[in-house]
Amino acid sequence: MGKTTNRGLGALFIRIALAAYFIITGLCMLGVGGSVKASQAGAAIYEIFSGDLAKIVAIIVAILLLIGGVCIAITIFRDLGNWDNTAMLILTVLWIVIAVVADVFSRSFGVNKLDGNAMFWILNVAKDLLIIGGLLSIK
Fold first, then answer.
1. What is the pLDDT of residue 1?
2. At a CB cut-off of 8 Å and minimum separation 6, what does 32 contact?
């Protein structure tokens, strides 16, 4: 990693955090453990789709998050070239869709549930914006 600067160190920390977040969220969506965001994403998927299609979509999203997290982890040690840009673009679009559906349209976690718990919703939106910003900054 050559010259270490604050910017380089910050990007390293963002990569580590995003890799861990996506890998763990993907695993939780597959049923290994549990997390709030995996619950929100899963609930949003089941509100849009139903039955077996919802299960298939949830598995596809979980696998994409896992692959994206692993790609980010690999980029800590090695440049993936164009694959890196493609993975970041797919992850960014996927996370924007997840964030909008879960934070805005979801009946379980979205804007409709602001009755007295606005800080929880604002915190979720802020976390999603941090994730999107992190993805855009390490592209």
1. 46
2. none
Match 């979205």 to its residue by tokens. Answer: 110
pLDDT (tens digit, 9 = 90+) per residue, 93-116?
989 988 888 888 777 667 766 666
* 128 closest CA partner among 44, 34, 33, 12: 44
Sequence-ordered list of residues with C-beta below 8 angstroms from that of 5, at least 6 positions apart, any chain: none
CA distance 29 to 7: 32
Count of alpha carbons within 13 angstroms of residue 46, beta-carbon side = 11
Tokens of 94: 């996927």
Residue 134 has pLDDT above 80, yes or no: yes
Q: What count of residues does the chain have?
A: 139
* CB neighbour list of residue 64: distance below 8 Å, 6 or more residues apart: 26, 90, 91, 94
Confidence (pTM) = 0.81
Residue 109's contacts (CB-CB under 8 Å, 6 or more residues apart) are 40, 43, 44, 102, 103, 121, 124
Structure-block tokens of residue 60: 């596809």
Read off the tokens for 125: 């939106």
